[in-house]
Write a structure and sequence with these properties.
Length: 148
């Protein structure tokens, strides 16, 4: 392996980006995009009396060091020819998406309104856990690697 090969591999890594969240294809049965619901939950909607239940921003703050460390290990693996740039970026994306999914499962506040609990119960959904009425937000949080 020569210097030029090393430079090409590392440059290839810099041409990729990983996005974590909800893809356009993830929709609730009524057609509502899961990404829209996730955004509404993340920031809240005072007009609709929905308090923020942040899952993404605190996860970024809590995990950015670990993600950075993993990226450093990934760059080293790419430089050594042990992993491809795509493999590294996919691994980082899976790690981050998993961390966001874990955050979703840990949110317990603010507590749901009694009317929300009653509505969920009538529909046979999880009545008490915020962000987990159907499980769709949790299961559809993914990552995708794209070219910059």
């Amino acid at each position: 392996m020569g210097w030029e090969d090393l430079v090409k591999r590392v440059e290839a890594l810099g041409k990729l980006k990983t996005e974590v969240g909800w893809q356009d294809t993830a929709k609730y049965p009524d057609g509502t995009p899961v990404a829209l619901v996730a955004q509404t939950q993340e920031y809240g909607s005072p007009a609709r009396h929905i308090p923020p239940r942040t899952m993404v921003r605190p996860t970024i703050l809590a995990e950015k060091r670990a993600w950075s460390d993993s990226m450093g290990q990934g760059v080293k693996a790419v430089a050594q020819g042990k992993r491809s740039p795509l493999q590294v970026m996919q691994a980082i994306g899976e790690l981050a998406a998993g961390d966001v999914r874990q955050a979703i499962t840990q949110i317990n506040s603010p507590v749901l309104a009694d009317s929300t609990k009653a509505s969920r119960k009538r529909r046979g959904l999880e009545p008490n856990k915020p962000l987990q009425a159907t499980g769709l937000m949790l299961t559809t949080c993914t990552s995708i690697v794209k070219e910059k």
